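Hey everyone, long-time lurker, first post.

I ran two proteins through the pipeline my lab uses and got sequence/structure pairs for each. Pasting them in order. The first:
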Amino acid sequence: MTTRDRLVLIGITFLAVLGAAWILVVAPEREQASKLGAEVSAAQGQLSSAEGQLAGARAAQSQYAAAYASLVSLGKAVPSGQEVPSLIYQLSQATNQRKVEFSSIAAGGGSGSSASSSSTAASAAGFTPMPFTFVFNGSFFDLEHLFHQLDGFAAVTSSGGLRVSGRLLTIQSVKLSPLGVAGATKSSSLLSGTITATAYELPSAQGLAGASSAASPAGSATSTSTATSSSSPTPAAIARVNP
């Protein structure tokens, strides 16, 4: 065998060894590396998704207290029961602040197109209308301030938020007439204001809180309500507040 043949044989052997090494070692390692790269990419995608969910959960947790406080306020404006005693209490507080006499409250009233449209809107929202007729006694300006306060128990702010300080009331009509008080020298300056208005209740099956616990979350704003049980009986046709 000549030297040239030996060199050719050595070259062929070397190439065969390289091919075998590629097939047995390099190619499997590259395939394994490719699989690992795909797994790493999938894991990175899952990590990014989990981080996004965690950020959303933390944001929701930070807003939970404010959302719960808003829920309590909405429950105060439209309770899941009649809550007539709490309504009377709120009206009494308002009249005391305005130095107006809360004369009587009567169930019913609120007839006419305005009342009908209010009831239709309330039914569409799932609310049950509760019409009332209120009678207040006082001066013209005191009554005007009181009516404005009652109309603003639940109102939308300029920023689009909801401000709740009492029951949601829609006023259908206001009637003022002179108040005749026997033996009173200032009877001509006093007026009797009769309001037909509608309060609303949310059926218990559609309560704002649903099946959630009534306990407020830690750190949330607490709200004290003077409302009594929703099983309170419907008031008599006319209830005299101040005889």
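...and the second, right after it:
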Amino acid sequence: MKKWIEAHPNLWQFILFNILSNVSTITRFVLTWIGTAIFVSVLQMTSPFQFLIFDYTSAHSNGVGGFVTFLIAEVVAQAVNFFVQKNWVFKSNSDFSKAAPKYAVLAIVIVVVNLVLPGHVTELCVGRLGLNQGLASTIASVVNTLLAVVVSFPLLKFWIMPEDQKES
């Protein structure tokens, strides 16, 4: 295995990125389940919510509770992901004060997209496909996760946490 890793370091890094991204993915899923249970089911925070590009107004989008759930899940998952990727995947010695703001830009883009999509995905799953709220929320998280991988790996590897950074 060690010889294969040495022969294919970029492929190994991508595999490791995907495997270790599951730390933040698990964080996202757990917080989505907890948030849906608390904000939607228990507290009934299902009033329609719309602010700028965030539209949680459909009958099946979970309203303000859905928005709050995904906001908390995404922010925490992105914070976890920064340290996992920097320390374990890219083993980057990039200056934290330079890498963190770049990652924040990436995370904001990912969080905004991941807050916009769930309302639409949940509406599709519940309203058109007839799935239950829990499964619809899980599917929305899967869509968010896949999109985040496609966008974040190249940006992390080449812009935010490039290898062989000189210590400043």
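Reply from user beta_strand_b:
Welcome! Quick read of the second one: The longest strand covers residues 49-51. The mean pLDDT is 89.
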